[in-house]
Amino acid sequence: MFLVSPKPFTETGAPCGSSCSYLEAQPTDLAPAQWCTGVPGSAQNIDASGGAIGTGYMNTQGMIGLCTGGAGNEAAAPWGGLSDWFLPSPDELTALLAVPTSATGIDSAEVYWSSMFMPHATGEAACALDVSEVAARETCPSTPVPPLVWGYVNGVRAIRAF
Question: How far apart are CA 155 and CA 162, in angstroms?
């Protein structure tokens, strides 16, 4: 577990609903992937705009509703007998990256996808966090450096709320 909430929070759409108290991450990274593959035309129809804790599950559902592959589909695959895994929102990913890498196995040289899609002046972009820079900013939406095109290949770490 990387987040223990003193009071229940809502992870919209997740099995724990409004009674979630914990976030845990799978112990290893999944295969690096593009944010979304197989979506015809524009990804702008993907409903994945949540950045806060409690929005990763719903963002991931939006991704897998239109993408036939990519980070969201990979993260949502059943693992360890559980099928409620998802790609974290920027704030959920920031919370995970705040835990020492020795405890999470996070690659300190990696850039990890979040589940958030960001409108961007130069085109479609999805939000990713560079582990080496995460302490220097609050979340992807406030300072997306750089805005990453959803076709780039980045690290994937699945989480779940319960």
Answer: 23
Coil/strand/helix, residue 136:
helix
Give the other-Cβ count within 10 Å of 121's Cβ: 6
| CA distances, 160 to each of 68, 96, 125 (Å) | 21, 12, 24
- What is the tens place of the pLDDT at every residue in 21-63? 999 999 999 999 998 888 766 556 777 888 899 999 999 999 9
Helix (H, G, I), strand (E, B) or coil at 64: helix
Q: In what order do the strands lie in the sheet with 20-25?
A: 3-9, 20-25, 159-161
- pTM for the complete prediction? 0.88
Helix (H, G, I), strand (E, B) or coil at 82: strand
